[in-house]
Each structure stands twice: as C-alpha cells, then as structure tokens.
C-alpha cells in the first residue's frame, strides 16, 4: 500500500507484503519499544486485525500475530502489559475512521493460514550481542553462546560452587522468562532432552524436572533445582535488575537462535533393566559417581563428600548405578565415595 499511519509512540508503514513498525524514542515511550526500535511484520505472520476503543479518547489498532510467529511474544508468554505490546497502535479518537480503513485493508491481506499456529518464526528477534545485569550476575549472548558471570554480592552459594557458566545454543531446547515485574522473576535456560528418556516424565518446564542425558551442566540425569536462585542455568531478577526492556529481548534472541539451529541427535539413555533398573549418572560436584547400589538406598553426596545408605552393606551392583526415585535417608552407616 505504501501508506504511513502515525500513532502515539509508533508509526506503521504499510508495504505490499509486510508492515514496518517504527517506535519513537522519548520519555513517554515504554523502554521496551524504544529498545526494539523497529520491527518488520509480514502479512503471513498475522492472524487477525482488530480496532477497539482505547482510554481517554483514543482508539487502538491491534495486529494480532499468529502463535509461534514472533520470538519476542513466545518468550513473553502473555506477560507483557498492553502498553508494551509492539502490535498495538494507539491513535486519537478523531482518526478512528482512518484506522478502520487500514484495519480493513490489512484483513484483506491475511494469508490462508492465518488461523493456524506458525511452524517457524516469521518476525526477526533482536540481534546479538546482547547483555544485561541480573541480581545475581551478568548474562551475555554473542549469538552462539550464553554466559552467566556470577556477582559476589547476589549469587547463591550453589552458583558460586558451580562457577561461571557458558552454554551453547545447541545444548538448549528453549528459554523460560518470568517478568521482573513479578515477585520472583528470572531467566532460565531449558536443556535439550531425549524424547525416549524415561527420566523425563513430567516435562522439563516444571521446576524440579530432570536435565537430559547431555544437559547444560554436563551432568547425566541431574535434577533441576526448583528455585531459580539455586540453578546455575538461570539468573534471577530484582528491583532494578533484569528489566523487561533488557531481559526480554535477550530471551527472544536466545529462543530464536535455538529454533534456527538444527539440534544434534541426543544420545539414547541406557536401557532399563528388568525389575526397576537404574541408569548411570555423575555427582554434582564432579568428584565421582553417586553410588554402587541398584537398590533405592543411595542419597546424593553431601557437602563433605560423604553418603548415607539405608540398605545392607552386602548389597552389590555395577559401580555408578543408582535408582532414580525418591529415597528415605537413614542416619546410620556413612560411606566414603568410591567404597563398595
């Protein structure tokens, strides 16, 4: 169409196959929109166009993207406020007739798959390199690797013990972003997992779900901490740390890079033996395996490198095997790592 529609905080330029949205830079413009600068949205990425009355004598022209078409909205997962929605154009009420005209024109250009979720991202994510300061460290992304550098004032002891972290996007399946405007905001990386891995029942997106056979920590079948401040694959937000206009574009860029790359095949996990079975895994400290016993008797290593067991000492099995189900700890018979 080649026309331009100027609204509050943004200007839409209508091309033959897309809409170019340019955001203004000013004190009243939300910082997220300022950081995005501009976005080109293909007509094929839209599912609907609506026009509704706004606040204080305004109308709102809203181009609704298809699910899965925009990495920014996929990372946000419905947590954005209306004022930060990059697909809303607010205009004075006296321009309602003009806005209705452009809404009708856009609806006529929607593709035949507008009602279906997109099978790929159609809107570009913010470009790397990107970085932001979280409460417990600094996160950086260069387009291929994500780095977490812990702060000596905010990081938990678990993160200090794990050390600074670096992750390749090839090791990841996604990213979880919880808005810093929530009580416990965070950004957490989600590792790739094997589809046939029996350890993965319950999904990797739930707190306490296990990492995959080649997870981001390099451990096998390690369980994710339920709290983000204890997870070396996550950074937490706080007052003034990880603001939306810095952390959300970061999450969108990581998510887009993960989806763009073809993941490497995940190694198949060991087969479950008859009678319950066990799989091999290494200890979180990297100092050895978690047990010699195939009965549900071994607990994780303690900070002193000792283990407790609640089965008889005569129990034997291949070294490094352990049952992956909750165990009831017994205070008797402490055993040193590597002992049979």
Automatic annotation (TrEMBL):
It comes from the Bacteria. Residues 282-292 have a biased composition (Polar residues). It holds the Pfam family DUF4429. Residues 12-106, 140-254 form the DUF4429 domain. InterPro entries: DUF4429. Residues 282-317 are annotated as: Disordered. Transmembrane segments: none annotated. This is DUF4429 domain-containing protein. The lineage of its organism: Bacteria, Bacillati, Actinomycetota, Actinomycetes, Kitasatosporales.
